[in-house]
Amino acid sequence: MASMAVHRYGERNVILTWRFHYPCERTGPKPAWQTKGELSMKDDQAIETVYVNETPDPATQPPDEGMQSNGTVGMMKEFGQTAVPTVEPEIYCITIIGQIEGHIIMPPHNKTTKYEHIIPQLVAAEQSKTVKGILIILNTVGGDVEAGLAIAEMIASLSKPTVTVVVGGGHSIGVPIAVSSSYSIIAESATMTIHPIRMNGLVIGVPQTFEYMEKMQERVVRFVTSHSRILPEQFKDLMFKTGELNRDIGTAVGGTDAVSFGLMDEVGGIGTAMSKLNELIALKASPAETGGLTQ
Fold first, then answer.
1. Residues 6 or more apart in contact with residue 50 via CB below 8 angstroms
2. Which residue segments constitute the domains of the chain, with CATH numbers given?
3. pTM for the complete prediction?
4. Which residues contact 73 (CB under 8 A, 6 or more apart)?
5. Is there a smaller number of Cβ atoms within 10 Å at the N or the C end of the chain?
6. What is the mean pLDDT of the chain?
7. Residue 126 near residue 159, CB atoms below 8 Å
8. Helices marked H in the chain — which ranges?
9. Which residues are catalytic?
10. φ and ψ at 67, to 5 degrees?
11. CA gyration radius for the chain?
């Protein structure tokens, strides 16, 4: 409980704030928020009102269970576990989940991956001297075509070994991202939906828009076929297949079929991806360690 009074001393108005603490039954040290005020007087003038914060010595205080639990609660909220695992600094992991957000901000209830967040991470991993390889984990429904292609081009242009793992799904524009790495892996239960480029909303100038979308679709086909073993004709057959999807044309390719089509390199999971990435890192480092051929 506190009270405030205004007193005039000489030519100055001084506001005095007094905090009263009623006695109560309490065990333990004095709270840190308790203060005391002192008013000094000289020549009928108010000199100063001093408030001293009494901060207890941390060494003499009992542990605050609430403060200790904040870190645990934060880790449970962000990572779903009470302890964050320690990973090797040589491998940098990037996750692309939900919908790939491009130039238009998605509604707040959508789980998205912003491409302006992914690109700086790729640049930082490329510049880092400690990072030797990059692991990209995908579980995406697709999203913005140009944003997805930008991420795929960035991954493909990295000089360090990269491995992509598709878990759950790598649909739509997630297909170019999945095949953009040095080695691509898909889980056996994962799927990849291949379909033509679509556009929602009002379209002004249908012939011109169709021509633009057709060129963009060719960019996607050319990128996927140049970074995988699937043939362009086969990829287009999967893209324009009818009767496979209920409300769309295209094909939902499973993990084993994706490998048989030449779209992905291997069926596996995180263990397979880590093993392959370590193998690629060792393969890249071996010429530098041996010094190469000398003539």
1. 37, 38, 40
2. 2-60 (no CATH), 86-287 (3.90.226.10)
3. 0.68
4. none
5. C
6. 77
7. yes
8. 65-79, 115-127, 145-156, 174-179, 206-226, 232-239, 255-260, 270-290
9. 172, 195
10. -70, -40
11. 31
